[in-house]
Amino acid sequence: MQHAGLAAGASVLSGLPAFAADAFPAKALSLVVPYPAGGASDASARIFGESISKSVRQQVVVENYGGGTGLIGANKVLAAPADGYTFFHGSINEVFLAPLLNPAARYKPQDFLLAAPISDANIVLMVRNGIAVDSLDKFIEFARQGKGKSLTYATVGIDSIYHLMGDALASRLGVPFLHVPYKGGAPALQGLAGGEVDFAILPYQSSFESMQQQGRLKILTSFSRTLPPALKSIPLISQSRLVPDFEYTIGGGYFVRQGTPADRVAVLRKAIGEALAKPEIRAKLEAEGRTVLQPIDSQEQANRMFDQYLVRVNKLIQGVGRKTNAA
Fold first, then answer.
1. Reduced to 3 states, what is the DSSP secondary structure of residue 181?
2. By the 8 A CB rule, do 91 and 35 touch?
3. What is the C-alpha separation between 173 and 5, in angstroms, rounded?
4. Is 80 exceeded by the pLDDT of residue 121?
5. How confident is the model at residue 323 (pLDDT cuts 50, 70, 90)?
6. Residues 217 and 193 sit within 8 Å (Cβ to Cβ)
7. SUPFAM superfamilies this protein is in (predicted)?
8. CATH architecture assigned to 27-120+250-319
9. Is-same-fold flag (27-120+250-319; 122-249)?
10. d(Cα 291, Cα 310) in Å, to the nearest integer?
11. What band does 6 get if pLDDT is binned at 50, 70 and 90?
12. Residue 4 and residue 235: Cα distance in Å, rounded?
């Protein structure tokens, strides 16, 4: 009888490991950032990572993989199991532009699933110390007086939105710009501050202000239509007399590999939404130049945003006369 009781107890307990295995997350999560530490994406991911960790009661480990305009980081996510334990701090650059424009990208945008959009980053144009202009229009006049000499500009990499913007601006103005790709925002910023390049097109982050105060660079414009309160001192592109309609922002969010179980994506979405709902997190993100979005509560909403990003990217590519890999 004793053995039968033990057997019955074992049979009840045998259901527990299976139940525990279904609990998500049951271990630490990897949050992949496709650029080196110190850039705008990294700053944003660390703000989110801390809050998500508290929501899911597991550690969130931020992992930085710079290079290839985000390709290396994107491939890390796609090479991991589709189990929700690896998610991606991604943007239009890595999820959409890279696979559409870079033949080295062996994936397509649809290999990713958007769990939740988080923000639009505000993009700025800055010049190095030594270029004595104080507005975008004066910079354009300076570029036009270069007598065919190319001004050099830094971005986070080839075929990034910032690269395409530089090409589009050069084409529109009829002046030559030479693109200098870096492995991320932090190295590009150092290149500008060190005088390696003449200007940079990058997503805004709060460290730009202190570098401007030190006289190492000057922020001439934001390409946005509106700005968070923390950035009100930066001139808007609409204030330009020469290119007032040259408006761009970069949308981003948290992505997982396509095929990740819907219930696990929902857990991540809920944790991301809880972060977005916190006033202190919204304030931190706005201080880093982000226009913060509202939380969403369904995959259908996320899918609609994914489709909107794809439309925006295709318009941008067509606008600068590039051909996609599918063409």
1. strand
2. no
3. 85
4. yes
5. confident
6. yes
7. Periplasmic binding protein-like II
8. 3-Layer(aba) Sandwich (3.40)
9. yes
10. 19
11. very low
12. 79
Q: Which tokens in the block code for residue 157?
A: 């990499």
Strands 199-203 and 290-292: unpaired
Residue ranges with strand state E in the chain: 29-33, 60-64, 86-91, 112-128, 151-155, 177-181, 199-203, 217-222, 249-257, 290-292
CA-nearest of 29, 25, 67 to 48 is 29
Name, in order, each residue with C-beta under 8 angstroms of 106's C-beta and a sequence gap of 6 or more: 75
What type of residue is 25?
P
Other Cβ atoms less than 10 A from the Cβ of 199: the count is 23
pLDDT in tens, 50-104: 999 999 999 999 999 988 889 999 999 999 999 999 999 999 999 999 999 988 8
Could you give the CA distance from residue 210 to residue 192 in angstroms, rounded to a whole number? 14
Q: Express each pLDDT in 40-60 by its tens digit.
A: 899 999 999 999 999 999 999
DSSP string, 83-99: SSSEEEEEEHIIIIIHH
14, pLDDT greater than 90: no
Residue with tokens 């980053």: 121
Tell me whether strands 29-33 and 60-64 are parallel, antiparallel or unpaired: parallel
Using one digit for the tens of pLDDT, what is the confidence trace for 241-250?
Answer: 999 999 999 9
Do strands 151-155 and 86-91 pair parallel, antiparallel, or not at all (unpaired)? Answer: unpaired
- One DSSP character per residue, 250-287 reads EEEEEEEETT--HHHHHHHHHHHHHHHT-HHHHHHHHH
Contact 31, 73 (CB under 8 A): no
Query: Domains of the chain: which residue ranges?
Result: 27-120+250-319, 122-249
Which CATH topology does 122-249 take? D-Maltodextrin-Binding Protein; domain 2 (3.40.190)
Contact partners, residue 310, CB within 8 Å, separation at least 6:
96, 109
pLDDT digit string (tens) for 149-158? 899 999 999 9
Q: Strand, coil or helix: what is 169?
A: helix
What six digits make up the tokens of 285? 């993100």
Structure tokens at 18: 């299976």
